[in-house]
Amino acid sequence: MLTRQTLHDAHDRIRPYIHRTPCLTNQTIDQMVGASIVFKCENFQKIGAFKARGGMNAALQLTDQEKINGIATHSSGNHGQAVAFAARQLGMPAYVVMPRTAPQVKKDAVRGYGAHVIECEPTLAAREATVADVIARTGATLIHPYDDDHVIAGQGTATIELIEDNPTGKPFDVILAPVGGGGLISGTALATQLLSPSTRVIGAEPEGAADAILSLKSGQVEKAPYIQTIADGLMATLSERTLGYIRQYVHEIKLASDDEIRAAQRLVWERMKIIIEPSCAVPLAVVLKYKNEFTDQTIGIILTGGNVDLGKYFS
Q: Which residues form a coiled coil (predicted)?
């Protein structure tokens, strides 16, 4: 398991390559919830998402020979950009397997960082088989989107900054992050346990990809009953590794519907004047849905990314 020193080492390692993103508040949203909310704005991060942290931390720990052969991954978008960005920063090749249904803006961004994009069918089996073929052909090293302690440690650095930069002057009662494959919530929960052990951690998951809530209840990795959600970045299934962190450090997982996610996304756009993607809006959707449970609390929310396909809005 990761330690406090592991997290701080990861933070020191990636510091020259990432932004220390701002922690913002919004009075209108606070009044709607009846609580004090601090938003850790990873939509302002390099590549537009928190995943720059984990991808960079993993890439920086490769050997010289591994760097020659490059890195590979599979991703619906943001982790692919993180791997492509890290490869460009370190001068090595990158190969990113992406489902053909991934947002075009994310495919274009991965190519823009100089990575090779290999498209596949939109299933986990197809992603894993395709990236295995790429690795066999190229000798590249896999940087998994979430089933990797280097990646998890990198993601946890966002929570280090959230706790250190908290502008309220009050300790957090609860910190929320979205749950997809579990890399972010694992790093978030571990960092919170190590730095602010009295703070509860809640995972936020879309109803249309609700595997983590079932896995937490059963104690084993479960599949979602169905996959259909606007939150395209949260469709992955937990790994045994991430479920282990969740069972140990996450207090609860709550669900939000697509309509609730859209409403939260729109609220942030309108009231905070910042762009966030649907996956990013799930924690706020949960807080708004269950606001009676959060009254008078100090809440931290990881705003995970802002990579929206603007082609849907502007033609």
A: none
In DSSP terms, 178 is beta-bridged to 204
The position carrying tokens 């450090």 is: 249
Q: What is the 3-state secondary structure (H, E, C) of 173-199?
A: CEEEEECCCCHHHHHHHHHHHHHCCCC
CATH number of 52-142: 3.40.50.1100
Q: How far is CA 244 from CA 151, 187, 216, 221, in A?
A: 15, 12, 9, 10
**In the numeric block, which tokens belong to residue 73?**
């991954």
Q: What integer is the mean pLDDT of 84-92?
A: 97
Domain 4-49+152-312 and domain 52-142 have a common topology: yes
Scanning the structure block, which residue is given the tokens 């996956």? 279
Distance CA 209, CA 88 (A): 32
| Mean pLDDT of the region 173-197 | 97
Domain ranges of the chain: 4-49+152-312, 52-142
Q: How far apart are CA 26 and CA 38, in angstroms?
A: 8
CA 92 – CA 69 distance, rounded (Å) = 7
Residue count of the chain, please give it: 315
pLDDT at residue 7 greater than cutoff 70: yes
Residue-wise pLDDT for 24-45, tens only, equals 999 999 999 999 999 999 999 9
CB–CB of 227/212 below 8 Å?
Answer: no
